[in-house]
Amino acid sequence: MQAAAHAFRDGHGCPELARSILGSRNAVRRRLFTAAATAPALTVLLDVFAESLIERCAEAVHDGDLAGLTDWVETTFRARAGAPSIRQLVLGVGPALTATLGERGFQTFTDRLEPVVQRLRIPEAGADTIDELDLLLADMISRVETNDPMTAEHCRAVSAWCGRIAQRLALTRREATFVARGGLIHDVGKSVTPAEILQAPRALTDSEWIVMREHVMTGYEIVRDHQHLREFGGVVRSHHERFDGRGYPDQLDRGEIPIAVRIVTVADAFNAMIGRRTYRTPLAPDRATFELRRNAGTQFDPNVVAALIDVVGC
Questions:
Q1: Which residues of 116-126 are buried (b: 16+ CB within 10 A; e: fewer)?
Q2: Within a domain: residue 126?
Q3: Residue 59 and residue 96 in one domain
Q4: Which three-class secondary structure state does DSSP give residue 8?
Q5: What digits encode the pLDDT tens for the residues 195-246?
Q6: Neighbouring C-beta atoms of residue 104, cutoff 10 Å
Q7: Burial per residue of 15-38, b for 16 or more beta-carbon CB atoms within 10 angstroms, e otherwise
Q8: 20 to 30 A Cα–Cα from 306, which one of 7, 106, 207, 248?
Q9: Average pLDDT value for residue range 167-183
């Protein structure tokens, strides 16, 4: 590939290249973990961080400004006490983008990010440990990916959006982590939904929708049997409840729907609209946020919709 036409230079925005980064998200993500010599399924933190890092890189390319990216990296390092695995991902982003999209000036990322990483204290040990919950969550998303990779991609993106919405709503770090983890496995019931329904290149029939909607109860039954996952049962079961009480499976009133569920519902709907689907092209983010606004107060919590729109910037 030719570098000159689309080379990224700080101070020169390139919206077309930014779209290429987001359009190649899965390939970039795989290259990123390879470049960082880090297994992608180790922790939920790394999955969510990688998704957010790719989005931030696309924003930097779109605006031609790496300052926001470097500020975000520094903030993340301080929040996570410089977790070594995050350090590897940050330093791997330039090579990952280059390997995926060609020689397009991504050395700029390495040149700007490496000093940020190096000047922050990196503890020798004790950060970003793998616990039983991380392994269970990784297993759940692996089940989904085996049945339908596109649904797993959606789950990872929803998790990232959930974390950002939770931060915008000023939830505590622990609460934000809970919401992000719930978002990651909200569709775990689709691990047993027939692939021909999940991947149908057309609108579903009424009978197929009945089968599709069973994923909430199937997922609930999966997580409730695990000691460390049952706390996510409400998110898995209720993420299709509506603010006006007309959702499923329990037609919960708005006062009965926890904030974690409301966040996952909005993130799920937004990413479903902007994400890849076999039967339609993705909506532009501004069109998706228009639909969220149009249904705020009926399908969605208006405060959560407002937070998502602030995060997206539409």
A1: bbeeeeeeeee
A2: no
A3: yes
A4: coil
A5: 999 988 888 899 999 999 999 999 999 999 888 899 999 999 999 999 999 9
A6: 23
A7: eebbebbbebbbebbbbbbebbeb
A8: 248
A9: 90
pLDDT of residue 170 exceeding 80, the answer is yes
Please compute, for residue 211, the number of CA atoms within 13 A of its CA located in the half-sphere on the CB side. 14
**Structural domain harbouring 153:** 132-312
147 inside domain: yes
How many domains is the chain built from?
Answer: 2
- From residue 114, alpha-carbon distances to 31, 87, 108, 123, 140 in Å are 18, 9, 10, 17, 34
DSSP letter assigned to residue 255? G
Mark whether 89 and 221 lie in a shared domain: no
- Mean pLDDT over each residue of the chain, to the nearest integer: 85
Contact indicator for 151, 144 with CB cutoff of 8 Å: yes
Note whether 25 and 85 are same-domain residues. Answer: yes
Taking every pair of Cα atoms in the chain, the longest distance, rounded to a whole number of angstroms, is 58
pLDDT value of residue 130: 46
Who wins on pLDDT, 112 or 221? 221
- 22 sits in the region (left: phi over 0; alpha: psi -120 to 50; else beta) called alpha
